[in-house]
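Q: what sequence does this backbone want?
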């Protein structure tokens, strides 16, 4: 290691993913510095939806309660034919592992501002208004050059610098292309006082003449998205008169002010490498998804949660650098599932061939008439097994409330071992986890914990700091060699 490095971790990009990671690291006492080329947040929303797991991460950084006041619970989404018959209903699950609502709508600038402030409150330092231009991994640290001629050093660097990531380009990392690329016009409206939202729930109007999405947002906002079709001029379609004419079938022209109308190209892309030496990628720098399931930012925040506790252990020399290799291995299958599902829905929605659309509608209406056509939350898949996930585990753990306090708040950033009885928390395995600072809890002393065990069909559950189940079984055992190597005391 160089004699001195300026920071344990430098994060490039202070968007929602970089600010979440900064807050999670600062919370753990890691010396984290964030650099962003812009001085302020992106003023207009891109993301409008997040799920219960994201609220659980926001809970960890201490801002979930206040943000929940500014969200609305998502009642669901219907996929409609051009003449507005329901093809498919998606309704969020009632019960969730975290106890937070399955699915929520929010205002991205409010979230980003609070996350940035929170990261700084917790101790993150920042350089804003200056772009990063170059990175050099010197083997024992990384040197980061900025556009103003200054530079900083860090033990590790995380590129959270968005879809056009400078970090990814500096490393020469390619993106795997899932062959989905569609331009859409995104229109954000501010409804006039007293005007009801054009739809009470999200709609995907699968009209081959103009696929259209409607998304409720916290009042007074509402979003429309219109797919561009052959012959559309991306510049002309953003002009106020054109936008108003497109809204005409849905609302009166004077019912709302247009806050923003912009064309975005929706992609399905996943980086081939998420780590090269001491540099890692997270968020849109590592993956991009069409927004049909509202999961792009959610996936990036899951990256941050996966990475934070591992980086903490590695920069404190508690765990070997190899712990960071589990990041890509664990996150890629998750992201492939989500992006694959979003691309699948995208192909369904973006059909512009009338004959293909007619067949799709006939098939889906028949399935619905036969009792199908209903789906629940598109849940994030469990982590696949690996050194830190026993075969059959990797699901998100349950979070009961104990005496008015959510379980994660009791456990903090530690591992937790939850057992059916205190007798199961004796012996070599329990001592092994105790030596790693784990919270050892039993369901006799704290009956609310039974739900953690029941959901895993086990008498003992080991929960990781990112709230995924590492192991579930009938006894607390010392983990196998691979986990022992990554988690020395
Ligand atoms: C229309 C639309 C709808 C969407 N809807 C949803 C949704 O409902 N739910 C959801 O979860 N996701 C949604 N998304 C995706 C979501 O917006 C993104 O996944 C998310 O904003 C990515 O966050 P990020 O922090 O990775 O990157 P960004 O938000 O892009 O932040 C990157 C940051 O890096 C900075 N930066 C870039 N280059 C440099 C450099 N060289 N030096 C220093 N700083 C740099 C930028 O200034 C920026 O602040 C949607 C996207 C779009 C376009």
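A:
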């Amino acid at each position: 290691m160089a004699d001195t490095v300026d920071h344990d971790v430098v994060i490039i990009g202070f968007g929602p993913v970089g600010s979440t990671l900064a807050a999670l690291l600062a919370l753990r006492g890691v010396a984290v510095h964030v650099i962003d080329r812009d001085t302020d947040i992106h003023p207009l929303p891109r993301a409008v939806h997040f799920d219960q797991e994201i609220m659980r991460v926001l809970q960890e950084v201490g801002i979930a309660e206040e943000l929940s006041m500014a969200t609305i619970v998502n009642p669901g989404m219907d996929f409609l034919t051009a003449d507005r018959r329901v093809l498919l209903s998606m309704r969020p699950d009632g019960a969730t592992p975290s106890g937070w609502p399955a699915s929520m709508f929010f205002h991205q600038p409010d979230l980003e501002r609070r996350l940035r402030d929170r990261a700084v409150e917790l101790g993150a330092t920042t350089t804003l208004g200056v772009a990063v231009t170059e990175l050099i991994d010197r083997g024992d640290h990384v040197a980061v050059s900025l556009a103003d001629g200054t530079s900083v050093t860090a033990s590790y660097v995380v590129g959270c610098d968005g879809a056009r990531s400078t970090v990814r380009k500096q490393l020469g990392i390619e993106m795997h292309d899932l062959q989905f690329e569609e331009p859409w016009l995104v229109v954000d409206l501010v409804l006039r006082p007293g005007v009801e939202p054009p739809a009470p729930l999200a709609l995907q109007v699968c009209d081959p003449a103009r696929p259209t999405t409607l998304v409720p947002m916290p009042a007074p906002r509402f979003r429309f998205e219109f797919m561009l079709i052959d012959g559309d001029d991306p510049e002309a379609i953003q002009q106020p008169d054109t936008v108003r004419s497109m809204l005409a079938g849905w609302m009166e022209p004077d019912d709302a002010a247009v806050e923003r109308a912009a064309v975005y190209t929706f992609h399905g892309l996943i980086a081939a490498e998420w780590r090269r030496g001491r540099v890692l990628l997270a968020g849109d720098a590592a993956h991009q998804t069409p927004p049909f399931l509202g999961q792009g930012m959610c996936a990036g925040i899951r990256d941050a949660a996966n990475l934070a506790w591992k980086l903490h252990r590695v920069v404190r020399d508690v765990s070997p650098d190899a712990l960071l290799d589990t990041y890509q291995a664990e996150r890629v299958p998750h992201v492939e599932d989500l992006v694959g599902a979003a691309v699948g829905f995208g192909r369904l929605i973006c059909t512009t061939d009338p004959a293909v659309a007619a067949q799709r509608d006939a098939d889906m209406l028949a399935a619905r008439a036969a009792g199908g056509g209903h789906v629940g939350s598109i849940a994030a898949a469990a982590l696949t097994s690996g050194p830190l996930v026993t075969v059959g585990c990797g699901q998100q753990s349950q979070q009961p409330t104990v005496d008015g306090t959510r379980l994660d708040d009791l456990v903090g950033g530690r591992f937790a071992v939850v057992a059916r009885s205190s007798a199961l928390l004796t012996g070599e395995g329990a001592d092994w986890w105790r030596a790693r600072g784990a919270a050892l809890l039993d369901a006799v002393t704290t009956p609310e914990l039974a739900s953690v065990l029941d959901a895993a069909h086990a008498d003992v559950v080991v929960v990781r700091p990112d709230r995924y189940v590492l192991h579930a079984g009938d006894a607390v055992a010392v983990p196998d060699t691979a986990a022992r190597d990554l988690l020395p005391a």
